[in-house]
Write a structure and sequence with these properties.
The chain has 365 residues and is of the alpha+beta class. It has helices at 11-17, 85-96, 147-151, 157-163, 192-197, 225-232, 265-271, 326-354; strands spanning 27-30, 35-38, 46-51, 59-63, 69-72, 76-79, 105-111, 115-121, 127-131, 176-180, 186-189, 210-214, 240-247, 253-258, 286-291, 297-302, 316-319. The strands form five sheets. It has a five-stranded mixed sheet with strand order 9-8-12-10-11, with helices on one face.
């Protein structure tokens, strides 16, 4: 086992050097509110401690006892519950100075104690969710574990939203609110900043007593198409996008597109069975109706050959009938008129044949 990255005395250095796979990031900055939040250790959390160049001081899988203490050799008993990882790091550095000249200490949070968070508002499955995190588990594609349980193993806001079935189409990602019933803290989170700016600081680590509230938009589509493209690719967005396709297709009606694959106009046409009875038909005009921010249905014309637009939930797609020459339309009209006559004539001929006394041939005459 290679020696983990050492902690620097400076907290900013510490945050920059610790590999994300080895330690849960314990401080989260909220630029919009100038708030910071640190994970507070508690009973049944499990940590590991490494001292660079002094392996004899390394100690792994230390469980915080019910009284809040941990026992570290040769330091003895130390109070850990109620402190942040940064605070505990400072304590350990000071105590190790009795044995080492310049101790560089790494603290790895291996497992958090089970706790419950609540998710309300515009999610598919609101309710309470228990989180039990084991950051050392490699999750080797164990088919026995459900996807929901795997998502709950990391207490990130985005993962909890996945465990809750994903957000609804009318959710307001820019004004997510998290409140804590224990310390009365409150955070306003903009999840669109994660998608647009890569601001991972908005993907807050949740703690015991947290309630996540996802507000609703005034209308399900009060969001630009560009924003929706980013929203649709998020892990916490709904996996199924409902679209209605009507007109000149083989299977008109409601279709469900997979947001992880493709949610474009041509994908919807394909899912509806393609153009009706004529694979060579490539219309230059398809009508897409969509509700705007006021709820009014607005229709636009799109050429699917040059503009394979991204569809949004509950869009209505209409494929017009294949244009035909006037002679062809006249022929179809004539056939519709003559078909009843032909049917009657055929029936009459059958009756005539049935009642014709000479319809039988007598052998020998």
């Amino acid at each position: 086992m290679s020696m983990p990255m050492a902690f620097a005395e400076n907290i900013s250095d510490y945050k920059a050097k610790i590999p994300a796979k080895n330690i849960i990031k314990s401080r989260l900055e909220f630029n919009s509110n100038n708030y910071s939040r640190s994970y507070v250790l508690g009973p049944n959390d499990v940590i590991s401690i490494f001292v660079y160049d002094s392996e004899e001081f390394n100690q792994e899988n230390i469980r915080i006892q019910p009284n809040g203490n941990i026992i570290i050799m040769p330091l003895g008993q130390i109070k850990a519950a109620g402190t942040t990882i940064e605070d505990l790091h400072i304590q350990l550095v000071n105590k190790y100075k009795k044995y080492l000249k310049d101790p560089n200490v790494t603290i790895r949070l291996d497992k958090t104690r089970p706790f419950v968070v609540y998710v309300t508002g515009a999610v598919l499955n609101p309710g309470s969710y228990e989180i039990s995190t084991d950051t050392t588990d490699n999750q080797n594609s164990n088919a026995i574990k459900s996807e929901v349980m795997l998502e709950r193993k990391s207490p990130l806001l985005s993962n909890i939203l996945v465990a809750a079935g994903g957000i609804q189409f009318d959710s307001d990602l820019e004004h997510v609110k998290i409140t804590n019933s224990f310390d009365n803290s409150e955070f306003n989170v903009n999840l669109m900043d994660i998608l647009e700016k890569g601001d991972a600081g908005q993907d807050i680590y949740l703690m015991a007593g947290d309630t996540v509230y996802i507000p609703k938009l005034p209308t399900p589509l009060a969001v630009s198409e560009e924003k929706y493209k980013k929203y649709a690719t998020a892990t916490f967005s709904p996996k199924i996008v409902p679209i209605k396709v009507y007109g000149y297709v083989n299977k008109p009606g409601l279709i469900k597109l997979d947001s992880s694959a493709s949610i474009t106009l041509n994908s919807a046409i394909t899912a509806a069975g393609g153009y009706l009875t004529d694979s060579a038909y490539a219309p230059k005009k398809i009508f897409i109706s969509r509700a705007d921010i006021s709820g009014k249905l607005v229709t636009r014309v799109v050429n699917p050959m040059s503009n394979d637009v991204t569809l949004m939930p509950n869009d209505i797609v209409y494929v017009p009938e294949k244009p035909r020459p006037l002679v062809g339309k006249s022929f179809d009209y004539m056939m519709r008129v003559l078909n009843p006559v032909n049917t009657f004539a055929n029936t009459y001929n059958n009756w005539a044949l049935m009642y014709n006394p000479h319809r039988y041939q007598v052998i020998g005459k």
